[in-house]
Amino acid sequence: xxxxxxxxxxxxxxxxxxxxxxxxxxxxxxxxxxxxxxxxxxxxxxxxxxxxxxxxxxxxxxxxxxxxxxxxxxxxxxxxxxxxxxxxxxxxxxxxxxxxxxxxxxxxxxxxxxxxxxxxxxxxxxxxxxxxxxxxxxxxxxxxxxxxxxxxxxxxxxxxxxxxxxxxxxxxxxxxxxxxxxxxxxxxxxxxxxxxxxxxxxxxxxxxxxxxxxxxxxxxxxxxxxxxxxxxxxxxxxxxxxxxxxxxxxxxxxxxxxxxxxxxxxxxxxxxxxxxxxxxxxxxxxxxxxxxxxxxxxxxxxxxxxxxxxxxxxxxxxxxxxxxxxxxxxxxxxxxxxxxxxxxxxxxxxxxxxxxxxxxxxxxxxxxxxxxxxxxxxxxxxxxxxxxxxxxxxxxx
Amino acid sequence: xxxxxxxxxxxxxxxxxxxxxxxxxxxxxxxxxxxxxxxxxxxxxxxxxxxxxxxxxxxxxxxxxxxxxxxxxxxxxxxxxxxxxxxxxxxxxxxxxxxxxxxxxxxxxxxxxxxxxxxxxxxxxxxxxxxxxxxxxxxxxxxxxxxxxxxxxxxxxxxxxxxxxxxxxxxxxxxxxxxxxxxxxxxxxxxxxxxxxxxxxxxxxxxxxxxxxxxxxxxxxxxxxxxxxxxxxxxxxxxxxxxxxxxxxxxxxxxxxxxxxxxxxxxxxxxxxxxxxxxxxxxxxxxxxxxxxxxxxxxxxxxxxxxxxxxxxxxxxxxxxxxxxxxxxxxxxxxxxxxxxxxxxxxxxxxxxxxxxxxxxxxxxxxxxxxxxxxxxxxxxxxxxxxxxxxxxxxxx
Lengths: 397, 397
What we know:
2 copies of one chain form a homodimer. Chain A is α/β, with parallel strands linked by helices and 397 residues long. Helices cover 44% and strands 22% of the residues of chain A. Chain A is built from 17 helices and 16 strands. In chain A, strands 6-5-4-7-11 form a 5-stranded mixed beta sheet, with helices on both faces. Chain A has a 5-stranded mixed beta sheet with strand order 14-13-12-15-16, sandwiched between helices. Chain A has a 3-stranded antiparallel beta sheet with strand order 1-3-2. Chain A starts with a helix and ends with a helix.
């Protein structure tokens, strides 16, 4: 009961703050005395803070108003992707408090070096967090591959060329700082984290059931059903990048042929843009290869436009499979697919329409994420604070 | 509370019968007095019956034992498929009490004629049910197409060539008997009904999350997640037959090209077996075209074997997409796919293995349904009794 009420009051303050104790009590349906006592605990724990006084335009003493503590807990997200490593902090209100990115082709480095760079980046971010008065709660690691979440094992990440890695153990071995080593470490698939990022911080609430497509070097998807991530029996659901477009199509990094990734992955598009062999480091562009591909398309480079039409077609074929199998309310394009949506969507929609059963108009909407890059990173960090919001007593008691 | 207990006691008797009142009380955790009073209601309603006396090998008066009433409620299932119409009765214990099948190519008849034949078959079955002392509770109609369940509208059934049909209204207009017209009518997709049939009456409990593939003229799938049917946002999920195998492949009845159905549907296999234009009526075979295709394969007819290899390959490509997107514990082959499993599975498994990400062995098992034909019909009739089992008070009160 106490656990439930603590979570209820904290969520009300986080979602509706700045808000008075009286307004919280009215909203959650508890007495003012109960709410005041719970608020006291939340203040002591540092989860909420008094952020001012309400102006009710009435006579009498104005009450103090509460909000998520801006100097309170944060979740730490770490994303290790093919051409960057990034760390971010998200607070209880879902605000991104800091992002640190280090670009570079991680395929060119030994795995241990990549992990060491990642550990250093986490350490730097944590020093900055503490300087800013923030309290890191835990670390969530987003990886572009199949992850066994209960054990934190990365089974395989074809685009990185990694497999069979105990991620928390390897990060600790790579030299996490003392502050980082104290944190609980969770590991998950980047596309899944991106989908929950969209659910919590993007268009989630209006989308219904959706398939969230994130494209970078690889292409992945996160499935959200009934406002929850649908992970499948082993947590490997949503591997959209390896849906077959043409069984005898171009080779894919996964070892098979004709997978969606082999048509719409960043590498393929970069090659068409004459950016073969170009890495984030070498381009020195803070937005990486995606920005260069976008620029080439905007400049009307014919090879890039042709590659984008083909990628849009392949996305349409694969997403038609998704629609036939899962019947979602919406498909959301994010990451590189969002950046390049203007060029991808026409062919994508044409396939969705051409391949509906018996010409029935498609019922699945196609939407473009507004979250920008690092949606996975934000979802990862957010997953840490969501754990706290679901059960604050674990941290209070 | 009473509603909950009524359902609890009824389900205990149905699942564990023959069983004494005392054993039911111990199992559900209610007092013997409460159970006896509920049993009285269930006896009056005719849902359960006293089916004998228990022999406890002890002194004293033996107690009576209870079971689902063998002369009690039944669900009525009606399946209208491309080359047959079938009706069946399923009782509370899940036993099939009667199946009536009428073979014939329904594409050759006007829709009104097919509906009239279906209405007649339902009428005949209901007369037989009442003669046998059974009490029909409701009618569930299984159709090979997209169904809007809340309204009972068939949106489109490409293989029948039907669209935009108010199914309950059309059946009533086609002349349902008075007894049938009294029944509530539900409408659903045949593959979905087949999947819940497998869940309730087949291997369901041991399968975990599964994708249930039913093949006849069309190919469909029902997705079972967490022991419930996953219908998608509009109830159209599981349209496996229209997953793309090759975007420029053979034409499909749905209007697109290269759908799984165009490789593994019954028509394609029948054509390879030299059975083109042969219908259920003309062959006079009670098991229909499927049995003839099986016989041709068993006889080693090279064209049939080649078509089956290609069908198995296409199934493997499409099911790999399913595995990548949904990550189920198992794929279950049913209907025609179960009948022909010996010839389909080798190529199917080869594709599943060849197309896993980074060579990680597939975690999804491939199983073959033991339910035989008419799984959809059984699931449809079963859905009616399951509604009663979930809320018996609706019928008692």
